[in-house]
Amino acid sequence: MDNRQIADRLEAFATLLELVEANPYTARAYRRAAETIRGAGLPVAELARSGRARQLRGIGPGIEARLRELVETGEIAELAELERELAPDLVGLGRYLGLGAKRSVELARALDVRTADEFREAAAAGRLRTVPGIGPKIEARLLEALAREGQPRPRQGLLLGRAWELVGGVAAALDGQAAGDVRRWRDSCELLAVVCAAVDPGPVLERFAALPQIVAVIERAERRAVGVTVDGVPVELVAAEPERFGTVLVRATGSPDYVEALEPLPDAADEEAVYRALGLQWCPPELREQPFRGEPPALVEPDDIRGDLHCHTTWSDGRASVEEMGRAARERGYDYLAICDHTPAVGAVRGLTSGDVRRQAEEIAAANEVLAPFRVLRGIECDILPDGRLDLPDEVLAELEWVQASVHGGQRMPRAEMTKRVVEALRNPHVSCLSHPTGRYIGRRPENALDLERAFEVALEEGVAVEVNGLPDRLDLSGAHVREALEAGLEIVCSTDAHSVRGLGNMALSVATARRGGATAAQVVNTRPLDAILG
Ligand SMILES: [Zn+2]
Ligand SMILES: [Zn+2]
User: Which ligand is nearest to the CA of 339?
Assistant: First the structure.
């Protein structure tokens, strides 16, 4: 069993524990353990077998015992029991249809059905309305949802990180290619698709249906299937004839508008050949949002990135030390990493005072002794106070090598006030970069009422860069705003805002978001060598 398989099983266990409303702390603990295992550099099966699993963060005796059972027997007995009892395929189907997990299970019990297929039969036979609490209206809604044709969508878009984990996992297991919204790196993903090449589609469709991530198959045709996860999220699989793989992949990747503008597509085995036959250059998926037939710019690549300029440590709300973060950044092949912990005004978590900033300098110097020639930079994520002043005195900011300025509290300010606040901060000569400029949380909080155009104007005057924050629920600036910033003449910084070693991996999301905005390497500050950052 590899780490991913182990993590998937623990994740499934966590989901079922939530369904039975077991102690939510336990479910969370399993979810966290799954995340740790997914990111672990060592084979966890071996650790578990030799009784060393507790060396991993967040793995206590309870989870250790389950892990051991899993690697020794291939199963967790309690999980298998829960699966029998709860029928995750029915839960997945029910959630996809818009029912809660508990309601799905109740309905299945009342209908005495055990599988998604039996559920469909019962619905088709008109038995839904025999269930207490299901009136004609709900029945009609469920029947309509069951019969829904075309491209299925989740009830709520998935954050990009989660969507990649799901679709990337399915694609890897089937030797296929992730497509749909994920391949375009949309910040909220609805169309989740995988394309495989297969002469005979039968076996790959079977393997898809048997994946641990897929609890039920809701549609199946000769070369296409739609499965749902236990959370009711639909994933589409297309098994293309090898000689048409490129064509099918182009169709499954681009937005409907983009694809339509290219039609009719010639049949070809790979994408390059499709574009060649159309007389076009291959187009990076990030640019396949709007109709586009031009010559794509040379977009920034993940390998162009030479350092990360925004991350946290245990000095504020991060989980790793300065040296651990530096070492992990060095292992990624970077030349530098700026430590940007919070300042006191952030409120909810610990923030650094002037004294702390100077004490941290000693720890950074010590880390640099060990990690040289890699360089840990003295940075800060300094709160912008409601009146536009910064949360640390100028003479302290002047000592630092990189200053991120951030709005955290008081984000509901009216437009004029918010704009004045940010503009004031941008005028401070020590500020290097404006963090998460719009303050949005995808699906949870809209953008601040900031006049972005005005902020960009002032940032340009003052030589301040703007951030493309790579946290999956921020992705701020968004691709569209990156485009506006670049048009205004600004430079951007691709950052992760990592709060852990693993968080540094979100650089991929930041870079892809910058690419969606058309950014080239020359427009991204942290593609430059260290002396350019310090100069
Ligand atoms: Zn922040
Ligand atoms: Zn931060």
Answer: 2
